[in-house]
Amino acid sequence: MAKRRKQKHQIDKKVIIEAFADMAKNKNIDKDLLQGVLEETLSMIIRKKFGLDASFEIIVNMDKGDIEIYLMREIVEEVFDPNTEISLEEANKHAEEDEEFEMGDEFIEEITLDNIADNFGRRLVSLASQNLNQRIKEIEKDQIFNEYNAKVGEIIVGEIYQIRRHDILVMHEKTELRLPRDQQIPNEQYKFKKAQSIKAIVNEVKRSGTSGQPDIIISRTSEKFLERLFEIEIPEIYDGIIQIKGIARDPGERSKVAVVSFDERVDPVGACVGMKGIRIHSIVRELNNENIDLVEYTDQAAVFIMRAIAPAKIKDIQVNEELKTAVVTLPEDQVSLAIGRNGQNVRLASRLTGYNISLIKEGSEDIDIKEFDAELGETLLNELIELGVNTAKEFLNEDPIDLLNLESMTKELLLELRGIMLAEFEEKEDDEIVEKINSI
Hints:
alpha+beta; CATH 2.40.50.140; GMP Synthetase, Chain A, domain 3; 4-stranded mixed β-sheet; elongated
Protein backbone atom coordinates (compact mmCIF):
# COMPACT_ATOMS: atom_id res chain seq x y z
CA MET A 1 0.00 0.00 0.00
CA ALA A 2 1.27 3.50 -0.73
CA LYS A 3 0.54 7.17 -0.39
CA ARG A 4 1.23 9.91 -2.92
CA ARG A 5 1.06 13.49 -1.78
CA LYS A 6 -1.15 15.82 -3.78
CA GLN A 7 0.43 18.99 -5.11
CA LYS A 8 -1.31 22.30 -4.62
CA HIS A 9 0.56 24.18 -7.38
CA GLN A 10 2.02 22.97 -10.69
CA ILE A 11 3.05 26.27 -12.30
CA ASP A 12 6.80 25.68 -11.96
CA LYS A 13 6.94 22.38 -13.77
CA LYS A 14 4.66 23.64 -16.53
CA VAL A 15 7.03 26.52 -17.12
CA ILE A 16 9.92 24.05 -17.39
CA ILE A 17 8.06 21.86 -19.89
CA GLU A 18 6.97 24.86 -21.98
CA ALA A 19 10.53 26.15 -22.07
CA PHE A 20 11.76 22.78 -23.30
CA ALA A 21 9.00 22.56 -25.89
CA ASP A 22 9.97 26.00 -27.24
CA MET A 23 13.61 24.95 -27.30
CA ALA A 24 12.79 21.80 -29.25
CA LYS A 25 10.87 23.88 -31.78
CA ASN A 26 13.24 26.85 -32.14
CA LYS A 27 16.51 24.92 -32.14
CA ASN A 28 15.16 21.92 -34.01
CA ILE A 29 16.25 19.56 -31.25
CA ASP A 30 14.51 16.22 -30.91
CA LYS A 31 11.85 16.39 -28.19
CA ASP A 32 12.62 12.89 -26.87
CA LEU A 33 16.28 13.81 -26.58
CA LEU A 34 15.46 16.91 -24.55
CA GLN A 35 13.14 14.85 -22.38
CA GLY A 36 16.02 12.48 -21.63
CA VAL A 37 18.27 15.41 -20.68
CA LEU A 38 15.62 16.81 -18.33
CA GLU A 39 15.14 13.39 -16.70
CA GLU A 40 18.92 13.06 -16.34
CA THR A 41 19.17 16.47 -14.64
CA LEU A 42 16.28 15.76 -12.29
CA SER A 43 17.91 12.43 -11.43
CA MET A 44 21.09 14.27 -10.50
CA ILE A 45 19.15 16.56 -8.13
CA ILE A 46 17.42 13.61 -6.48
CA ARG A 47 20.68 11.69 -5.96
CA LYS A 48 22.43 14.79 -4.59
CA LYS A 49 19.53 15.38 -2.18
CA PHE A 50 18.69 11.81 -1.15
CA GLY A 51 21.90 9.89 -1.87
CA LEU A 52 23.03 7.37 -4.46
CA ASP A 53 21.01 4.55 -2.88
CA ALA A 54 17.72 6.42 -3.16
CA SER A 55 14.98 4.65 -5.11
CA PHE A 56 12.91 7.00 -7.24
CA GLU A 57 10.98 7.31 -10.48
CA ILE A 58 10.73 10.34 -12.78
CA ILE A 59 7.87 10.70 -15.26
CA VAL A 60 8.09 13.52 -17.82
CA ASN A 61 5.20 14.04 -20.20
CA MET A 62 6.26 16.62 -22.80
CA ASP A 63 2.87 16.51 -24.53
CA LYS A 64 0.79 17.17 -21.41
CA GLY A 65 3.33 19.49 -19.83
CA ASP A 66 3.69 17.47 -16.64
CA ILE A 67 6.54 16.26 -14.45
CA GLU A 68 6.11 13.72 -11.64
CA ILE A 69 8.84 12.58 -9.27
CA TYR A 70 8.26 9.73 -6.80
CA LEU A 71 10.58 8.69 -3.96
CA MET A 72 10.18 5.09 -2.81
CA ARG A 73 11.12 4.11 0.79
CA GLU A 74 10.74 0.86 2.66
CA ILE A 75 8.63 0.81 5.86
CA VAL A 76 10.79 -0.55 8.70
CA GLU A 77 10.67 -0.81 12.46
CA GLU A 78 13.90 1.12 13.03
CA VAL A 79 15.16 3.69 10.52
CA PHE A 80 18.91 3.67 9.75
CA ASP A 81 18.78 5.59 6.44
CA PRO A 82 15.92 8.11 6.17
CA ASN A 83 16.54 8.45 2.44
CA THR A 84 15.63 4.80 1.78
CA GLU A 85 13.60 3.90 4.87
CA ILE A 86 10.63 5.27 6.83
CA SER A 87 9.12 4.16 10.13
CA LEU A 88 5.68 2.58 10.28
CA GLU A 89 4.47 5.38 12.56
CA GLU A 90 5.64 8.11 10.16
CA ALA A 91 4.15 6.35 7.15
CA ASN A 92 0.75 6.01 8.80
CA LYS A 93 0.73 9.74 9.54
CA HIS A 94 0.52 10.32 5.81
CA ALA A 95 -1.88 7.49 5.08
CA GLU A 96 -5.13 8.18 3.31
CA GLU A 97 -8.38 7.63 5.14
CA ASP A 98 -9.09 3.90 5.55
CA GLU A 99 -5.47 3.18 4.55
CA GLU A 100 -3.01 1.46 6.85
CA PHE A 101 0.59 0.45 6.14
CA GLU A 102 2.37 -2.67 7.32
CA MET A 103 6.01 -3.47 7.91
CA GLY A 104 7.88 -4.14 4.64
CA ASP A 105 5.46 -2.10 2.53
CA GLU A 106 6.79 0.43 0.06
CA PHE A 107 5.96 4.03 0.87
CA ILE A 108 5.71 6.23 -2.22
CA GLU A 109 6.04 9.97 -1.76
CA GLU A 110 5.72 12.55 -4.51
CA ILE A 111 8.56 15.10 -4.63
CA THR A 112 7.12 18.39 -5.81
CA LEU A 113 8.88 21.01 -7.92
CA ASP A 114 6.96 23.85 -6.26
CA ASN A 115 9.39 26.18 -4.55
CA ILE A 116 12.18 24.02 -5.90
CA ALA A 117 14.94 26.19 -4.41
CA ASP A 118 13.43 25.83 -0.89
CA ASN A 119 12.97 22.08 -1.22
CA PHE A 120 16.37 21.25 -2.73
CA GLY A 121 18.55 24.24 -1.86
CA ARG A 122 19.57 27.09 -4.11
CA ARG A 123 23.12 25.80 -4.57
CA LEU A 124 21.88 22.41 -5.78
CA VAL A 125 19.35 24.01 -8.12
CA SER A 126 22.08 26.28 -9.53
CA LEU A 127 24.33 23.27 -10.12
CA ALA A 128 21.49 21.44 -11.86
CA SER A 129 20.80 24.49 -14.04
CA GLN A 130 24.46 24.65 -15.10
CA ASN A 131 24.47 20.94 -15.88
CA LEU A 132 21.27 21.29 -17.88
CA ASN A 133 22.62 24.22 -19.90
CA GLN A 134 25.88 22.36 -20.59
CA ARG A 135 24.06 19.25 -21.80
CA ILE A 136 21.82 21.35 -24.06
CA LYS A 137 24.88 23.07 -25.56
CA GLU A 138 26.43 19.65 -26.23
CA ILE A 139 23.22 18.51 -27.91
CA GLU A 140 23.19 21.64 -30.06
CA LYS A 141 26.81 21.02 -31.11
CA ASP A 142 26.03 17.40 -31.98
CA GLN A 143 22.91 18.49 -33.84
CA ILE A 144 24.86 20.99 -35.95
CA PHE A 145 27.71 18.53 -36.55
CA ASN A 146 25.37 15.78 -37.73
CA GLU A 147 23.26 18.14 -39.83
CA TYR A 148 26.20 19.58 -41.80
CA ASN A 149 28.12 16.32 -41.93
CA ALA A 150 25.14 14.99 -43.87
CA LYS A 151 25.42 18.01 -46.19
CA VAL A 152 29.07 17.39 -47.19
CA GLY A 153 29.18 17.63 -50.98
CA GLU A 154 26.09 19.83 -51.15
CA ILE A 155 25.92 23.49 -52.19
CA ILE A 156 24.70 26.02 -49.64
CA VAL A 157 23.90 29.71 -50.05
CA GLY A 158 24.88 31.83 -47.06
CA GLU A 159 25.53 35.44 -46.13
CA ILE A 160 28.97 36.89 -45.46
CA TYR A 161 29.11 38.47 -42.01
CA GLN A 162 32.84 38.80 -41.39
CA ILE A 163 35.86 39.03 -43.71
CA ARG A 164 39.10 38.18 -41.93
CA ARG A 165 42.70 37.94 -43.05
CA HIS A 166 42.82 34.18 -43.48
CA ASP A 167 39.17 33.23 -43.89
CA ILE A 168 35.64 34.46 -44.46
CA LEU A 169 32.85 33.68 -41.99
CA VAL A 170 29.49 32.88 -43.53
CA MET A 171 26.13 32.63 -41.78
CA HIS A 172 23.82 29.87 -43.00
CA GLU A 173 20.54 29.27 -41.20
CA LYS A 174 21.95 30.81 -37.98
CA THR A 175 25.03 28.58 -38.16
CA GLU A 176 28.57 29.86 -38.68
CA LEU A 177 30.51 28.38 -41.61
CA ARG A 178 34.14 29.07 -42.52
CA LEU A 179 35.62 29.68 -45.97
CA PRO A 180 39.44 29.39 -45.54
CA ARG A 181 41.84 31.25 -47.82
CA ASP A 182 42.94 28.05 -49.58
CA GLN A 183 39.30 27.28 -50.41
CA GLN A 184 38.68 30.72 -51.95
CA ILE A 185 39.11 31.39 -55.65
CA PRO A 186 42.29 33.53 -55.99
CA ASN A 187 41.72 37.31 -55.72
CA GLU A 188 38.02 36.71 -55.12
CA GLN A 189 38.20 37.86 -51.51
CA TYR A 190 38.59 41.48 -52.58
CA LYS A 191 35.25 41.33 -54.41
CA PHE A 192 33.30 40.16 -51.37
CA LYS A 193 31.44 42.50 -49.04
CA LYS A 194 29.71 42.03 -45.72
CA ALA A 195 26.08 40.86 -46.00
CA GLN A 196 26.73 39.66 -49.57
CA SER A 197 25.22 36.35 -50.60
CA ILE A 198 27.76 33.61 -51.32
CA LYS A 199 27.49 30.14 -52.81
CA ALA A 200 29.85 27.31 -51.80
CA ILE A 201 30.00 23.58 -51.17
CA VAL A 202 30.17 21.99 -47.71
CA ASN A 203 33.65 20.51 -47.88
CA GLU A 204 34.39 19.18 -44.39
CA VAL A 205 32.95 19.15 -40.87
CA LYS A 206 35.18 18.51 -37.87
CA ARG A 207 35.30 19.11 -34.13
CA SER A 208 37.44 22.08 -33.16
CA GLY A 209 39.69 21.80 -30.11
CA THR A 210 38.51 20.85 -26.63
CA SER A 211 35.23 22.76 -26.99
CA GLY A 212 33.94 20.31 -29.58
CA GLN A 213 32.38 23.21 -31.47
CA PRO A 214 31.76 22.08 -35.08
CA ASP A 215 34.15 23.65 -37.59
CA ILE A 216 32.19 23.67 -40.84
CA ILE A 217 34.51 24.30 -43.78
CA ILE A 218 33.06 25.35 -47.10
CA SER A 219 34.86 25.56 -50.45
CA ARG A 220 34.67 27.34 -53.78
CA THR A 221 37.82 25.74 -55.21
CA SER A 222 36.70 22.13 -54.93
CA GLU A 223 36.15 20.23 -58.16
CA LYS A 224 32.97 18.94 -56.51
CA PHE A 225 31.72 22.53 -56.32
CA LEU A 226 32.08 22.89 -60.09
CA GLU A 227 30.33 19.56 -60.59
CA ARG A 228 27.38 20.65 -58.42
CA LEU A 229 27.10 23.93 -60.35
CA PHE A 230 26.81 21.93 -63.57
CA GLU A 231 24.03 19.84 -62.00
CA ILE A 232 22.14 23.00 -61.02
CA GLU A 233 22.50 24.82 -64.34
CA ILE A 234 22.19 21.88 -66.75
CA PRO A 235 18.99 19.79 -66.39
CA GLU A 236 20.37 16.98 -68.57
CA ILE A 237 23.12 16.36 -66.00
CA TYR A 238 20.69 16.49 -63.09
CA ASP A 239 18.40 14.02 -64.91
CA GLY A 240 21.30 11.66 -65.72
CA ILE A 241 21.12 12.07 -69.51
CA ILE A 242 24.60 13.60 -69.45
CA GLN A 243 27.28 12.51 -67.00
CA ILE A 244 30.42 14.29 -65.87
CA LYS A 245 33.28 11.80 -66.22
CA GLY A 246 36.05 13.96 -64.81
CA ILE A 247 37.14 17.45 -63.82
CA ALA A 248 40.60 19.03 -63.73
CA ARG A 249 40.66 22.52 -62.29
CA ASP A 250 42.94 25.47 -61.59
CA PRO A 251 40.42 27.54 -59.57
CA GLY A 252 39.70 30.97 -60.96
CA GLU A 253 41.81 30.37 -64.06
CA ARG A 254 40.85 27.34 -66.10
CA SER A 255 39.05 24.02 -65.89
CA LYS A 256 38.56 21.05 -68.17
CA VAL A 257 35.36 19.06 -67.77
CA ALA A 258 34.80 15.72 -69.48
CA VAL A 259 31.15 14.94 -70.29
CA VAL A 260 29.38 12.05 -71.99
CA SER A 261 25.79 11.63 -73.21
CA PHE A 262 23.72 8.49 -72.77
CA ASP A 263 21.29 9.68 -75.42
CA GLU A 264 22.69 9.79 -78.96
CA ARG A 265 20.29 12.62 -79.77
CA VAL A 266 21.88 14.87 -77.13
CA ASP A 267 25.23 16.54 -77.77
CA PRO A 268 26.88 16.66 -74.31
CA VAL A 269 29.09 19.65 -75.07
CA GLY A 270 26.33 21.62 -76.79
CA ALA A 271 23.85 20.93 -74.00
CA CYS A 272 26.33 22.17 -71.41
CA VAL A 273 27.07 25.33 -73.37
CA GLY A 274 23.39 26.10 -73.93
CA MET A 275 21.72 28.51 -76.32
CA LYS A 276 24.16 31.37 -77.00
CA GLY A 277 26.33 30.01 -74.17
CA ILE A 278 23.81 31.03 -71.50
CA ARG A 279 24.28 27.89 -69.38
CA ILE A 280 28.07 27.82 -69.28
CA HIS A 281 28.29 31.61 -68.87
CA SER A 282 26.22 31.36 -65.71
CA ILE A 283 28.78 28.95 -64.24
CA VAL A 284 31.73 31.02 -65.46
CA ARG A 285 30.37 34.14 -63.74
CA GLU A 286 29.88 32.25 -60.48
CA LEU A 287 33.53 31.13 -60.64
CA ASN A 288 34.99 34.61 -61.08
CA ASN A 289 35.27 34.25 -64.89
CA GLU A 290 37.11 30.94 -64.78
CA ASN A 291 37.59 29.55 -68.31
CA ILE A 292 35.91 26.17 -68.77
CA ASP A 293 36.90 23.75 -71.55
CA LEU A 294 34.23 21.13 -72.25
CA VAL A 295 35.65 17.82 -73.51
CA GLU A 296 33.49 15.04 -74.90
CA TYR A 297 34.54 11.85 -73.16
CA THR A 298 35.40 8.61 -74.95
CA ASP A 299 36.98 5.41 -73.69
CA GLN A 300 39.41 5.55 -76.65
CA ALA A 301 42.46 6.96 -74.88
CA ALA A 302 44.13 8.51 -77.94
CA VAL A 303 40.96 10.34 -78.99
CA PHE A 304 40.24 11.48 -75.44
CA ILE A 305 43.77 12.88 -75.05
CA MET A 306 43.51 14.60 -78.42
CA ARG A 307 40.27 16.29 -77.32
CA ALA A 308 41.68 17.19 -73.92
CA ILE A 309 44.77 18.87 -75.42
CA ALA A 310 42.56 21.24 -77.44
CA PRO A 311 42.64 23.93 -78.72
CA ALA A 312 45.97 22.64 -80.05
CA LYS A 313 45.78 20.35 -83.11
CA ILE A 314 48.09 17.35 -82.91
CA LYS A 315 49.98 15.57 -85.67
CA ASP A 316 50.47 12.19 -84.03
CA ILE A 317 49.97 10.46 -80.70
CA GLN A 318 51.55 7.36 -79.19
CA VAL A 319 49.75 5.95 -76.16
CA ASN A 320 51.00 3.39 -73.65
CA GLU A 321 47.88 2.33 -71.77
CA GLU A 322 49.80 0.08 -69.40
CA LEU A 323 52.12 2.85 -68.21
CA LYS A 324 49.46 5.55 -68.66
CA THR A 325 51.75 7.71 -70.80
CA ALA A 326 51.24 9.50 -74.12
CA VAL A 327 53.72 11.14 -76.47
CA VAL A 328 52.04 13.82 -78.57
CA THR A 329 53.68 15.24 -81.71
CA LEU A 330 52.52 18.70 -82.79
CA PRO A 331 53.24 21.15 -85.61
CA GLU A 332 55.57 23.92 -84.50
CA ASP A 333 52.82 26.54 -84.43
CA GLN A 334 50.66 24.37 -82.14
CA VAL A 335 53.21 23.65 -79.41
CA SER A 336 52.61 26.82 -77.41
CA LEU A 337 48.83 26.25 -77.59
CA ALA A 338 49.22 22.70 -76.33
CA ILE A 339 51.45 23.80 -73.49
CA GLY A 340 49.34 26.76 -72.46
CA ARG A 341 50.33 29.52 -70.08
CA ASN A 342 52.83 28.16 -67.55
CA GLY A 343 52.10 24.66 -68.84
CA GLN A 344 48.48 24.88 -67.68
CA ASN A 345 46.78 23.33 -70.73
CA VAL A 346 48.88 20.16 -70.88
CA ARG A 347 48.87 19.85 -67.11
CA LEU A 348 45.07 19.97 -66.92
CA ALA A 349 44.80 17.58 -69.87
CA SER A 350 47.06 15.11 -68.05
CA ARG A 351 44.98 15.34 -64.87
CA LEU A 352 41.70 14.99 -66.78
CA THR A 353 42.75 11.93 -68.81
CA GLY A 354 44.94 10.29 -66.18
CA TYR A 355 47.84 10.05 -68.65
CA ASN A 356 51.31 11.62 -68.39
CA ILE A 357 51.41 13.61 -71.61
CA SER A 358 54.72 14.54 -73.27
CA LEU A 359 54.78 17.05 -76.12
CA ILE A 360 57.22 16.83 -79.05
CA LYS A 361 57.61 19.35 -81.85
CA GLU A 362 57.12 17.87 -85.34
CA GLY A 363 60.33 17.23 -87.31
CA SER A 364 62.62 17.41 -84.30
CA GLU A 365 64.40 14.57 -82.63
CA ASP A 366 63.92 15.26 -79.01
CA ILE A 367 64.08 13.46 -75.68
CA ASP A 368 61.32 13.47 -73.10
CA ILE A 369 62.45 15.38 -70.00
CA LYS A 370 61.37 12.42 -67.87
CA GLU A 371 64.27 10.44 -69.34
CA PHE A 372 66.55 12.57 -67.16
CA ASP A 373 64.64 11.90 -63.94
CA ALA A 374 67.72 10.41 -62.24
CA GLU A 375 69.75 13.57 -62.86
CA LEU A 376 66.88 15.97 -62.14
CA GLY A 377 65.25 14.38 -59.13
CA GLU A 378 61.50 14.18 -58.59
CA THR A 379 61.02 17.71 -57.20
CA LEU A 380 62.90 19.53 -59.98
CA LEU A 381 61.29 17.32 -62.64
CA ASN A 382 57.82 18.32 -61.42
CA GLU A 383 58.85 21.99 -61.32
CA LEU A 384 60.05 21.82 -64.94
CA ILE A 385 56.83 20.16 -66.12
CA GLU A 386 54.90 22.84 -64.20
CA LEU A 387 56.90 25.44 -66.12
CA GLY A 388 55.96 23.76 -69.41
CA VAL A 389 59.37 22.17 -70.07
CA ASN A 390 58.63 18.64 -71.30
CA THR A 391 61.64 17.78 -73.48
CA ALA A 392 65.42 18.18 -73.43
CA LYS A 393 65.41 20.73 -76.26
CA GLU A 394 62.75 22.77 -74.51
CA PHE A 395 65.03 22.77 -71.47
CA LEU A 396 68.01 23.92 -73.53
CA ASN A 397 65.95 26.64 -75.23
CA GLU A 398 64.34 27.88 -72.02
CA ASP A 399 65.47 31.25 -70.68
CA PRO A 400 68.08 30.56 -67.95
CA ILE A 401 66.51 33.25 -65.77
CA ASP A 402 63.20 31.33 -65.71
CA LEU A 403 65.03 28.09 -64.89
CA LEU A 404 67.01 29.69 -62.06
CA ASN A 405 63.77 31.00 -60.59
CA LEU A 406 62.81 27.40 -59.85
CA GLU A 407 63.21 26.59 -56.17
CA SER A 408 65.32 23.46 -56.75
CA MET A 409 67.64 24.96 -59.40
CA THR A 410 71.13 26.39 -58.88
CA LYS A 411 73.66 27.82 -61.37
CA GLU A 412 75.95 24.83 -60.92
CA LEU A 413 73.13 22.33 -61.43
CA LEU A 414 71.82 24.19 -64.47
CA LEU A 415 75.23 24.10 -66.18
CA GLU A 416 75.64 20.43 -65.30
CA LEU A 417 72.22 19.50 -66.70
CA ARG A 418 72.83 21.47 -69.89
CA GLY A 419 76.09 19.58 -70.39
CA ILE A 420 74.36 16.21 -69.97
CA MET A 421 71.57 17.06 -72.43
CA LEU A 422 73.87 18.67 -75.00
CA ALA A 423 75.98 15.51 -74.95
CA GLU A 424 72.89 13.49 -75.92
CA PHE A 425 72.57 15.62 -79.08
CA GLU A 426 76.35 15.67 -79.62
CA GLU A 427 76.32 19.44 -79.36
CA LYS A 428 78.72 21.87 -77.64
CA GLU A 429 77.84 24.43 -75.05
CA ASP A 430 77.44 28.03 -76.14
CA ASP A 431 79.95 30.24 -74.27
CA GLU A 432 77.56 33.20 -74.33
CA ILE A 433 74.89 31.17 -72.53
CA VAL A 434 77.43 30.04 -69.92
CA GLU A 435 78.48 33.64 -69.39
CA LYS A 436 74.83 34.72 -69.10
CA ILE A 437 74.12 32.02 -66.47
CA ASN A 438 77.17 32.98 -64.42
CA SER A 439 76.24 36.65 -64.53
CA ILE A 440 72.75 36.11 -63.17
